[in-house]
Amino acid sequence: MSVSIYFLRRFGLKSKVATTLSEDDIELLDLFLEYNPKLSEKYTPNKQKKLKEYFLYNSLETIARIPNVFDELYLLESNGTKVDSNKIYKQADTISELSNLLDVIDWKEKGLLASSKKARIQIDTFKETLVNHQIEIDKWKNFRYFLENTFVTDSEVEKQNLSAEILQDLADEGFIIRTKDSSGYILAFNNICYIEELKKYFNLNEDYYIEQRPSEESGGTLRYTLDEFLLLDIDNKSYFEKRISGKTLREIGDEFGVSKEWVRLVLKRIVPNLPRIVEVEEYSSLFTEYDISLQVFKDYFCSDGRVYELLSLLYRKGDKDIAHKIASGNFTDDQKKLFLHDSKLYLTSHGLKELTRENAVIDVLYKNRDLQKYLNAEELFYLYSEEIQGNSKLTFSSVESFRNQLERYQNIIFSLKNGFRYHNLIVSDQLKSELKILFQDLEDGTYSMHYIFERNPELMLSMDIRDGSELHYFCKKYQLIDDVIKLGRNPEFTKGEYPKRYYVQENLLKYNRKSLDEFLSYMYDNFGLQIKSLAAYLSSEFSNVIINRIIFFESDYFDSGIQHLRSHLNEDVYEKHEFYEILTSYIDVIPSRNDFLIELGYVERGELVVKIEFKSAYEALSQLILSGKTFKIEQQSYIGTPEYYNALYTLEKEMKILKISEDTYINTDFLEARGYQKENLKKFVSSVENTIKKGKYFTIVSLINEGFQDKLIEDGFDLISLDRLISTSEMIKAVSLSFPTVYVKDETKRYLNEFLIDNLVNYESVNVEDFTDDINSKYGINLDEYDVQRRLISSGAFYSKELNKVYISKEDYLDEVYGK
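Structure (tokenized):
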């Protein structure tokens, strides 16, 4: 950690940025160096440039006037002092000046007595802190000597109260260099930022520098190729050669019998003194702009891997995708294809995309959209196979497997009559609303999608939908229709709670003893059902009531089947559609529902059909659930109905059942028989309510980890059982649904997004992966990192893709990401 960097707070550097720089050990002195490995390892070239050009440039004149930057008030912030928020710090310009004022002014009279006492403590604390930063202070003091004097001879070092060790450090880092005659040190003019401004403010003697600089001094006009440079006699050259050959610090250290930290230090001393190297100047902008691998660099730009390793030593690699540069660059088609293949990318008509089956299929349709608007599956399969040229990872085993995948792909639409074509339509919320309106006023019944298509020509044209079959495919693919609409075989659908057979039968009854042709025309005019397909359906499903193309129902048609049906209906509860499917499997046409159901001994209750002796669906379901010691959730058809969930919820609330596994509940009467009275269960819930503070999030896992104790826990009740008991509380609300449930003690319902944001407040800013791991570990849950990131962003958090961090405060986000 450094302290001098806080000097730049007075020139507009944000507190958050100053703290980040300080924690990264960036000192004020580091910003004076043209090339600084400390900065290059941690910050992009743009961020380095912003720091040096804006903050340092604006501060140079002030630095020239102030001998001791460590006396600046803003340095107190290194100990957490909020200088801007305390009026007392506006009374002076420096720490020493304020210290004098604290002794001579009557702060009580000014109403700042408490602030003055606090400031005195903060100043004393800072002075104690400086003891641990003596090297930083000495380096600044020694460097400033050169700003004011340009050079120093070895004989004068001690006389000028300078440190020989610090001067060597400054030389190793590139701030100063040995004079040509090795009699002393001189400021390294060509290594220092803004040397022209510094000459102006400090009256630097550049003539002496020109006269005394060594001929191979870093940053001069001499330029070498990498091979030429490696022929020079430089200290520790073998370390440098092995590093740029690709060896790690550890490997080099093992080879020379030293630590990797020693290797790092050696390289750190070599890098600032490098001359201008031709390959570095040629490829540095490429390296710092793009996220480029060693192999790609060697294959497409420079075959010498040493150059890449040298660039890695000098700069921080960029983050732009190199693929677009290569795809649009001056490379051969074979080179581009090889790169794209290796990178799993694909050059489509719309530009560069990930190499996937979907992108390749869509591109084939797009390229052929003007030549042949529709392609059947066989034609499209042939063109696709030609396009991918036998790429084994993208091939399909057969036309059938190919066809089965097409419905998942975007930008494809299908017509039963014509085939597949390219379809570029964005599904917006407005479009969804417009489509739903088309179905709202329809009477319950079975329809053809052609009926909707033909009655809404303007909307269909704007959507580029060309027939009812395409509309059906489009609605199914993007799930655009409410649950009340059930899409059948393309292009038919039903509206209402009953299947197609029921609605066809209802209308058939209206045409009893009338012509089949009249019925077919009626169904076409009012429902859009195609005459040929409907006639085929009737011949299959209702052949026994159509005689010589006349519809004929006998009046006693149903009576003989009542007793037979009763023998097949032996359950107390049925899901409605399941019940009528059973009926239609034994009888061709179902008469008026209510009377017929009563004769069978059943009645409709919402989404269920239950035996007539039950007053409600809840009564029937609760009797079923409580009929044994345990109730196991299986594949019963009524499981997904609102009535089922209501019964289960009510029984849990009343503590008549308790969940003991993911799919099993136990009847609490059985627990009472084993000595566990419901009062014990209620005491557990009450104990949790009393333990948890209002507004606190928790799970059964975090609760126990924090030391919560109860008899049920001691007796070995499963966590899932304890979790569900908590859900019966009126004071505690569930935030999530999966086990273990996240709860909060509050009067109002909260959701998972709020839970994540409220936890993020404790961090202010944090890496998303770390945040997700912390949350999962603390609460015993299993949230997905990507889902956490998405929810936080949608809830107003700020996200940096490069850092994979989220921020509560926009100011913190801008400070860290952009340095603003």
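Residues 752-818 form one domain. The longest strand covers residues 657-661.
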